[in-house]
Amino acid sequence: MPKIVDADQRRELVADAVFHVIAERGLTQASLRNVAQRAGLALGSVRHYFDDQAELMEFAFRVNSERIHLRALEKLEALEAEELPAEREALVEKCSGVLAELLPLDEPRRADAVVHMEFMLDARTNTLLSDAAQDDYRATGAVVGRVVLQLMESPLATKVLAPVDEAERLIAVLDGLSLRMVLQPAWSAPEHGLATLRRHLVDLITP
Amino acid sequence: MPKIVDADQRRELVADAVFHVIAERGLTQASLRNVAQRAGLALGSVRHYFDDQAELMEFAFRVNSERIHLRALEKLEALEAEELPAEREALVEKCSGVLAELLPLDEPRRADAVVHMEFMLDARTNTLLSDAAQDDYRATGAVVGRVVLQLMESPLATKVLAPVDEAERLIAVLDGLSLRMVLQPAWSAPEHGLATLRRHLVDLITP
DNA sequence: TCTTTTTTAGCACAGATGTTTCACAAATAC
DNA sequence: GTATTTGTGAAACATCTGTGCTAAAAAAGA
């Protein structure tokens, strides 16, 4: 009967336009009109797939959050599946590889991190995004927590760690690095941030 | 001749209104009208003291940034003036006292931190705020850097530290903690964040 | 009291935004 | 082919925004 257009694919296309607008001009500029133009659609088309602006924004937020965490989870599950490296260096390399998916180390991840920051900050005052923000907190908490557990399970970890405390500190390091790298890329280059993360992980397992 | 009104005082009053609006409803709601209403002034009055919205925002940003850093600098200079504590615990206590001024540990500091975050993130895409953001980066870099130097000067510091690297990591911890405490106060209580900061400082000077 | 200067208040305009509504185009099923 | 369902596009509306402009009010000097 109808014209066939994959609705889910269309929604993701619009979400991608949201990401581009936010990355380039900030969340305040992510109006329906700007998003529609960036997506190459008419305003009415966008509104055909999203009843509300609120619905669009929550959808985009969740896509962004899931994209980031799925990337990290893939690497994490690979890490958990195989044997833990016997070398300190290799262990840190594996773990930092997982967590690096949360950092803006290249252009796509940078865009993701920017969008993520803007949404999280907006969720503070925008109650329509608070549920998605809660889910995001849980997701990163799970990823980081599981990485810390991997570190502790290794016989290389000579230090006795309090997993919850160290996970919290590690989350702070990640958030802080991400923020700096996003806002001040001139001073916080990708290799620089990654090196700081690696040093922190080394500190965790060497007394 | 004229009605006498202290212009500088008036500008600070308006800036305070900006802070309240941002803390309660976010930067996007900090319109001239909302700010004027919060300040108990007419729109025309606000515009009498600030030609532009841009001028108001940069002024508010700088007041916020200076307020935060001046608080920390006061404590820092007190720390640098007196003898370094001989007890490890006392040293960490002093240093964390300085850096705690950068964290949202009580309501006024929480409001400052929220406003600070919103401005910093906005400065990414708002070129009119980028100069103020640069000055802010330098200011926190100076404060944190001097604290790290204090830690290294103490004979209690058994570890040999790379000051620049550790300052960068410490800044990340502070930014990350601040972000978490601002966005997720339910999970990141003030005492909790302060404890994490203290643990990090202890880790810095104990091998 | 009158004058002068600052402060305050308000109106009006152009632009942008979310939303509603409606008409049209397109593609499939009969 | 025709009908029906879905997708697309545009116009219109109310609201909010920054800004320009004008006029009243207030306070200090003459």
Task: Set down the secondary structure blueprint.
Two copies of one chain form a homodimer.
Chain A lengths: L6 H19 L6 H8 L3 H7 L3 H29 L6 H13 L6 H19 L4 H24 L9 H21 L6 H16 L2
Helix pairs in contact in A: 1-2, 1-4, 1-6, 2-3, 4-5, 4-6, 4-7, 5-7, 5-9, 6-8, 7-8, 8-9
The structure holds a DNA duplex (30 and 30 nucleotides).
Pfam families (chains A, B): TetR_C_6, TetR_N
Protein name (chains A, B): Transcriptional regulator
GO molecular function (chains A, B): DNA binding
CATH class of the largest domain in chain A: Mainly Alpha
Number of DSSP strands of chain A?
0
Number of helices of chain A: 9
Q: Largest sheet of chain A at a glance? A: none
The H/E string of chain A reads HHHHHHHHH
Percentage beta strand of chain A: under 5%
Largest interface: A-B, 41 and 41 residues
Radius of gyration of chain A: 19 Å
Instruction: Please tell me the CATH architecture of the largest domain in chain A by its name.
Output: Orthogonal Bundle
- Count of domains of chain A: 2
| Mass-distribution shape of chain A | elongated
Helix residue percentage of chain A? over 70%
Average pLDDT figure of chain A = 94
CATH homology superfamily of the largest domain in chain A = Tetracycline Repressor, domain 2
The CATH topology label of the largest domain in chain A is Tetracycline Repressor, domain 2
What's the end-to-end separation of chain A, in Å?
69 Å
Oligomer: homodimer
Low-confidence regions of chain A: none
Given the helix and strand composition of chain A, which structural class is it? mainly alpha
Organism (chains A, B): Arthrobacter glacialis
GO molecular function, one term (chains A, B): DNA binding
Protein name (chains A, B): Transcriptional regulator
InterPro entries (chains A, B): BetI_C (IPR039538), DNA-bd_HTH_TetR-type_CS (IPR023772), Homeodomain-like_sf (IPR009057), HTH_TetR (IPR001647), Tet_transcr_reg_TetR-rel_C_sf (IPR036271)
